[in-house]
Amino acid sequence: MLTEFDLIARYFMRPSHRASRAALGIGDDCALLEPSPGMQLAISSDMLVEGRHFFAGAHPIELGHKCLAVNLSDLAAMGATPVAFTLALSLPEAKEEWLAGFSKGMFMLADEHGCELIGGDTTKGPLNICITIFGELPSGQALRRDAAQPGDDIWISGTLGDARLALAGYRQEIVLDSATIEAAALRMHAPMPRIGLGIALRGIAHAAIDISDGLLGDLGHILERSAVGAALDADALPAGPTLLQQSQSMRRRFMLTGGDDYELCFTAPPAKRDAVMAAAQAANTPVTRIGMIGAGAGLRVIDGDGNPLDLQLRSFDHFASP
Ligand code: ADP
Ligand code: MG
Question: Is the minimum distance from the CB of 30 to ligand 1 under 6 angstroms?
Answer without folding.
Answer: no
